[in-house]
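Ops channel
N.P.: pipeline sanity check, posting one input/output pair.
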């Protein structure tokens, strides 16, 4: 699952929909615009739109798509690139081996692509190759898992892990605020990932606003169906009564729901995470414990293609006064419930 930085990354909030092609601002590999005439006002800056412009070759390198969310990342990138007649997408096979991914990115650098979009398997380990691309004059859009140095990318775009936990906690808090001595449990992801710590911290901070609620148990799973089922079974056995469950990841949530069904438990509400189509379908049906999911939208990959296209064309977007695209873009973790699930179903991933 993705790993991103927190508070400093949350300055610019976007919804779960991809950044439109008409929303990107003029930019280059540094913060100084080049090869463009100075506009008389910000509103006169060149603006990227759906009309064909300068051809741009975008290299896309991500980790192995061994998870529903990661597969959706690749698909969003491909689909967005197909929208533009002026974009050629060079996409790598994807690997969770850092040496292999570095080699793939170096191949794209040697091909002299115009822009790189990189979702690193390990941000720290791949920082050097990001620096190498920037030094070669190829602007880098760093997707989600952040490089260790801001010099390794021109723009970062990703999700808000702290905000994900915060919004899950707020939703649960509002559902249980009238219930005395309410109890909640948490099914987290991999504890060795910073993103898991951020999600848990956000959840805990939200619950501080609801003194009637106590978190009585937390179990870490591994973002897989199998681990979700096994760890949820342990939680259910250890906790004969609780009122709400927050599960960090909808993929492992499939296993959690199996364990819940096998135990015959219907006495609590469940909130998922990420925005899988299966979770949204269950929320829409409203016939089980799953009542909401907090988005970590894979549409960020489509937005990254928009940003890369604007960088390659030296253009920008409407809707902002600045001539440059921002250095970071953090997506908003919307809560999907039965009341708004119809709006988000098209973004659900398998």
């Amino acid at each position: 699952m993705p790993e991103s930085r927190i508070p400093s990354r949350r300055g610019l909030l976007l919804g779960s929909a991809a950044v439109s092609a008409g929303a990107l601002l003029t930019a280059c590999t540094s913060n100084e615009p080049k090869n463009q005439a100075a506009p008389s006002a910000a509103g006169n800056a060149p603006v990227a739109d759906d009309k064909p412009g300068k051809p741009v070759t975008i290299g896309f390198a991500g980790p192995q798509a061994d998870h529903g969310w990661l597969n959706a990342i690749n698909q969003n990138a491909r689909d967005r690139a197909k929208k533009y007649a002026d974009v050629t997408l060079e996409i790598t096979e994807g690997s969770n081996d850092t040496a292999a991914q570095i080699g793939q990115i170096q191949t794209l650098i040697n091909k002299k692509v115009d822009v790189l979009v990189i979702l690193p398997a390990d941000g720290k380990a791949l920082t050097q190759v990001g620096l190498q691309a920037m030094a070669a004059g190829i602007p880098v859009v760093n997707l989600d898992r952040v490089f260790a140095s801001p010099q390794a990318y021109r723009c970062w775009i990703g999700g808000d892990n702290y905000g994900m936990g915060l919004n899950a906690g707020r939703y649960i808090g509002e559902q249980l605020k009238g219930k005395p001595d309410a109890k909640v449990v948490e099914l987290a992801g991999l504890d060795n990932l910073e993103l898991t710590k951020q999600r848990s911290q956000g959840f805990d901070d939200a619950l501080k606003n609801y003194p009637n609620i106590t978190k009585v148990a937390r179990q870490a799973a591994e973002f897989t169906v199998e681990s979700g089922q096994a760890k949820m079974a342990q939680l259910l056995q250890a906790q004969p009564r609780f009122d709400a469950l927050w599960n960090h990841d909808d993929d492992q949530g499939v296993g959690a729901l199996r364990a819940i069904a096998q135990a015959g438990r219907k006495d609590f509400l469940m909130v998922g995470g990420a925005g899988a189509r299966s979770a949204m379908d269950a929320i829409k049906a409203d016939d089980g414990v799953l009542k909401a999911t907090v988005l970590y939208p894979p549409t960020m990959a489509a937005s990254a293609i928009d940003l890369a296209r604007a960088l390659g064309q030296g253009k920008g977007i409407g809707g902002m006064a600045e001539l440059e695209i921002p250095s970071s873009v953090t997506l908003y973790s919307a809560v999907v419930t039965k009341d708004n699930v119809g709006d988000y179903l098209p973004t659900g991933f398998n």
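N.P.: looks fine end to end. Confidence is low (pLDDT under 50) at residues 2-43.
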